[in-house]
Structures are given as structure tokens and as C-alpha cells.
TrEMBL record:
Domain of life: Eukaryota
Identification of the protein by name: Cut9-interacting protein scn1
MF (Gene Ontology): hydrolase activity, acting on ester bonds
Coiled coil: none
InterPro entries linked: Metal_Hydrolase (IPR032466), Metallo-hydrolase/TatD-type (IPR053044), TatD-like (IPR001130)
Record region (Disordered): 245-272
Database matches in Pfam families: TatD_DNase
Compositional bias segments (type: Basic and acidic residues): 245-255
Amino acid sequence: MSTDHDFPWDIGIHDAHCHPTDTMASIASIPHMKARSLTVMATRGEDQNLVQQITQSVNSQESSEALGRIVPCFGWHPWFSHQILDDTPQSSNIHSQGISTEQKEAHYTAVLTPSPAEDAEFLKFLPTPKPLSKLIAETRERLKSYPYALVGEIGLDKSFRLPSAWTTQELDNRNDQITPGSRENRRLSPYKVKMEHQKAVLGAQLRLAGEMQRAVSVHSVQAHGAVFDTLKGLWAGHEKVVMSRRDREKRKDAEGALSEDEDAGDEHTSLPLPFPPRICMHSYSGPVEPLRQFLNKTNPSDVYFSFSCLINFSGAGAGKVIDVVKMLPEGRILIESDLHTAGPQMDDLLEQVARQICEVRGWELRKGVQQLADNWKRFVFG
């Protein structure tokens, strides 16, 4: 990787996906970072308010003309999707009476595989689930408070297993600098969240993003096909109509010059739409083949792909990501740290991944960093 040029921080480096609220002690370093913007994800019950809090505290230190260093994102990660109860058919009962112990156990028995019905200790450890309708209502209000907020981190994960219940020793030794709610190195249980339930939680959040016309950041592990199928179902009936070369010539003759990027005819634009306008496949780890599906010109959402050193440019996946980055349109590439601690390490990872992307694409460094900055602005703001 070339390191013979000073890095052009002056252009603006934008982290498309990170988790600094997992280490709240690091938040004080954000105003001193070299990165221009951090797109900060919420993932679970413990960090929704924290994302809101740091947005207010950090952005208040910026000039009144500036958007602010933090772009907040509110969403429920698939690793915690079991904590959401799909109450669509019975919302009135749950809102009026709360969720009983029997409903809690029935919920977890239904959404986890294998069934934990005989594992009373594990069921006791699990929290009372939040109704999906309540999650969507709360997220809607947060999005209203921040006109440029995104929906994220959301998605699907076929490989994740729930951590086991805390042992007394683990609780005594846990790092209290880490925001509660994550695995924190506990051993894994045999339980996974059924894909059908993950899709229900994902679909509700995608529809909310469509309603509010917000971009989304999507987690996908061994589930790129399932993510695409979920999106395709929401896109149905709203596909762009791609004109043939012959139709383009006819329209050009009839109406005069046709814009170079005007590839589609009239499309359905009535609001609200059931899908987000822009989608980021974060730390995309899939092969080249699915790119054609995600980037098909008939798709009514613009799909971006972000890359990180931690996930993409280390280990066995490093060779695969090079082919993916080479194949993507230059306007659909983003960079991220995916780091859980703000500060110099986050800056270093962003510089590394920007340099790697520029090298793979054959971009001169300033040109490449400008392209990545433009891509992020288009992804967030449209």
C-alpha cells in the first residue's frame, strides 16, 4: 500500500459505519479526530439513547452552520432481533396488559432454534421482549428529531448464536467501560434467531425508512441472498422502467437531448414508499456475483457498499474484496471503520482503508478521497 503522500484529510473523510457508543469513555476524543464525520450506529436497547446523547453533545460543539460531526443512526441489529416481539396481530393486548411471563417464554420458544423450551435457566436470563410496534414508534420519533438520521444497523445474520447467560464470575470481572448488552466474550449458546423472525424485524425497519425517506445501513452475514429477496419483495411494483436503446432514440427525437444518466422512464414516486431510497451493505463480505442483483437498473433503491480494514482487508477475505471493489461503479463505494472506540485508532483505520481502496481502483489519492467523500454525501443526503 502506497504511503508516499500526505493523506488529504482536508478533503473530508467520512466514516460510513461505526459504534463509538460501545465505549463511552472514548466519546470525548471525537472533536479532536481527523475524520470529518462519523455515521454512528445504534444496535439494541442499551444504545439508542446513547446515540442521541452523543449527537447532541458532540454536534453542539460544532459551528452553527455545520451539520455536525455525528450522523446518528437508529436501528435494531439482527443479533438482538430475538428481543423484539412481532406484535402485529395482537398489539392492543400487549399495549394494554404488558407482556406476561408466559408470552415471553412462548415468544423465545417460537423465534429461537433449537427451541429453548427445556432450558429454564436460559429463558429466565433473557429480557422481556419489546413489541415491534413500540420499536418502530420510538425509532420514528428519533428520526423526526434528526432530519438526516439514518436507519441502522439492521439486517440478517445466518451464523450468529446468542451468548450464554452471564456467570457470576463473568459479571464480577466485566469491563464497566463497555456499554452493556453485547456479548463481551461470553461463550456462545446453541441458539440462533430464526430467519423468518429476523426478516420480520428487518422488513418493518426498512418500511419505516421508506416512510421517512431515510438511508439504511445493512448488516449481512451469510445472508446476501436473503437480504436481496427481502428488498425485492418491498420493491415489487415500484421497479424502474429501463428504456431500450431504440426507445431512448425515439424519446430523444421527440423531446430533444436526453440526459446521459437518464436510463429509466417514468417511475412510481408517490409517498410513502415501502423501501428506503438508499442502502449501504456495510463491510460487504459477499462475492462478486450478487452485485448484479443489487445494482440492477430496475431497482428503485440506490445500493452502496462500504468496506473496512477490520472485516474486509484482513484474513481470508482480503482476496475476495479486491475483486468486488474493482467491479463496483466508482460512485457506490464507501469506507468505514466499524470500530467500537472513537479516537486515533478510528482515524488510522479510515486512512488505511481509503488508501487500500484507492490502490485497488488505481485512483490518485486526492482524487480517490474526493470520490469517497462525494459518495458518502450522496448516500446520506441523497
